[in-house]
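Kindly inspect this one:
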Amino acid sequence: MNRKKDVILRATVALTENYKKEELFMPKNNRELPSRAAVIDVVKELRSVIFPGYFWNDSAAKVFPEYFAGYRLNDLYDRLKEQIEIALLYAQPELEQEGAEEEADRICAGFFEQLPEVQQRLLKDVQAGFDGDPAAKSKEEIISSYPGLFAIYVYRLAHLLYKEEVPYIPRIMTEYAHGKTGIDINPGATIGDYFFY
């Protein structure tokens, strides 16, 4: 037997034994955790709806804003709802599929209903950054490049889900921002308007 095959065989056997000994490695009750990649994609793409023209190369946002926003939100609603449902099912083994789907839909509807308010709060945060940072040349510069605004944006989304006691997803969101910016804002923190980090 060559070295590679021998090493792979030993590692496979040892890893498989570890899987069997520790339930943390395997999903509970044949249920899965929410997809970190899917949640991050929602965060990234929702940013283009909150700040159209900055983060998505789509001229439809300028020419047909209603179409752009409606089309993007419709898709993002379904994708976020799916991840919320997965999170609820994983965290609550006694929850049935139908109940999880209804609860995920209720939470997602509330989340999307609050997006215009989140957008307004973020505009106040942009103003706070512009007023408080003498190096800021424009509000556009803050929106397009300041890591603090990105961390606040993600926090404001995550906080909506945190208040609804959605498991896993708020932390996935804020840890994504933490990893990108070095700024760690707990999704449970209470932050008012006109905030800049």
Observations:
- The chain has nine helices and no strands.
